[in-house]
TrEMBL record:
One of its GO terms (molecular function) is zinc ion binding. Gene3D superfamilies: Zinc/RING finger domain, C3HC4 (zinc finger) (3.30.40.10). InterPro entries: Znf_RING (IPR001841), Znf_RING/FYVE/PHD (IPR013083), Znf_RING_CS (IPR017907). The lineage of its organism: Eukaryota, Metazoa, Spiralia, Gnathifera, Rotifera. It comes from Rotaria sordida. This is RING-type domain-containing protein. Keywords: Metal-binding, Zinc, Zinc-finger. SUPFAM superfamilies: RING/U-box. Residues 18-62 form the RING-type domain.
Length: 115
């Protein structure tokens, strides 16, 4: 299977977005901080977690969870993902694009060495 730079970046860009609304996670806006569901570990933005908090199943995989009585501040924030958006010297978009370029280079290097 041959992966182009575009397909690798597209694949990894999905991990940088909310699994429910597909909005990009943002360091600067707490509504779009990545929050991880405790049972299935899908990551969604805080805004979507507030919307689904009374549901009983993850919209991604239908695994049961119950967070309706848990304060949102006690749900796990995906800090490694959140911090990947912080770069005081660059804009958000430039930082994400740089990270995607780096991931693409690594994937190509791994694929070449395993061929």
């Amino acid at each position: 299977m041959s992966w182009s730079n575009q397909s690798i970046q597209s694949y990894y860009r999905d991990f940088l977005r909310c699994a429910r609304c597909s909005h990009d996670f943002e360091y600067e806006n707490p509504l779009y901080h990545p929050i991880t569901l405790p049972t299935c570990h899908h990551t969604m933005c805080r805004k979507c977690i507030n919307i689904i908090r009374n549901e009983t199943k993850c919209p991604q995989d239908q695994i049961s969870f119950e967070i309706n009585h848990t304060p949102i501040d006690q749900l796990p924030t995906n800090y490694p993902l959140l911090m990947s958006f912080y770069d005081s010297s660059k804009s958000y978009t430039a930082a994400v694009n740089d990270d995607l370029q780096h991931i693409t280079a690594i994937v190509h290097s791994v694929r070449k060495s395993s061929s």
